């Protein structure tokens, strides 16, 4: 009976362990194994290639630029998302008319399909009939005939800022609500004590709100780092990583490689997996997530 009781917890955690093994661990093992195989476009395994797929991948002339762009993409989107969300969370935490309506409106970009949102922005940026370019024509910012200046997704220097904007647009709602939840846990007597000590608004926010908000901020930023690094629909729907690979991140590059070399694409997947772990560890060290708030 004691042995049966000792095994009782397995009945509860067992299904979760099996699910994690099937959905997370097994795909990772298969991904790593596939990166050492030569696989045809039809999925037929032709044999073991040792590390040839990695040699070929690291030898790609655009590989270094794509990896650097991927890091810049993650940092830009996550930092802007957090900054905007901090401001919105602080705003929506105040009492003002129609606050509930404003909070519900904020959910819309998050509730909508990311792919649908990206396609809508692509239509809005259409060089001929896009509403954004029509506004630019009305304001005299571009010629009525359009030309190269009208195709903002046709050049990396203008396309990347728009891609970052759309990524921030769809990331802000979740992050804002996560921070709102964090603000709700801060006791009001802390602010009353700060007010009695003569602390101003900025000093109160910097010394009390932000430190106490750190757990929620850490979770929100960490989820954003993983989501943004693996983001596919926005870039693929708006630019396909073009022109060339000038707007492609490592996830887009991995998908493109799949059409010509599945083994090399698998190797890119392993590199991506490693990069996510590295970025996550760096973020956790920088954020000092396990340190007690003084």
UniProtKB/TrEMBL annotation:
Q: Which Pfam families match?
A: BPD_transp_1 (PF00528)
Q: Which residues cross the membrane?
A: 12-29, 71-92, 104-125, 162-184, 205-226, 266-286
GO terms for cellular component: plasma membrane
The record's section on Gene3D superfamilies has: MetI-like (1.10.3720.10)
Its keywords, alphabetically, are: Cell membrane, Membrane, Sugar transport, Transmembrane, Transmembrane helix, Transport
Q: Where in the cell is it found?
A: Cell membrane
Recorded hits in InterPro entries, A to Z, give: ABC_transporter_permease (IPR051393), MetI-like (IPR000515), MetI-like_sf (IPR035906)
Please list the GO biological process terms of this entry: transmembrane transport
Q: How does it sit in the membrane?
A: Multi-pass membrane protein
Residue intervals of the ABC transmembrane type-1 domain: 67-283
Q: Which PANTHER family does the annotation name? A: ABC TRANSPORTER PERMEASE PROTEIN, DIACETYLCHITOBIOSE UPTAKE SYSTEM PERMEASE PROTEIN NGCF
Name the protein family: Belongs to the binding-protein-dependent transport system permease family.
Which protein are we looking at?
Multiple sugar transport system permease protein
**What organism is the protein native to?**
Nonomuraea maritima
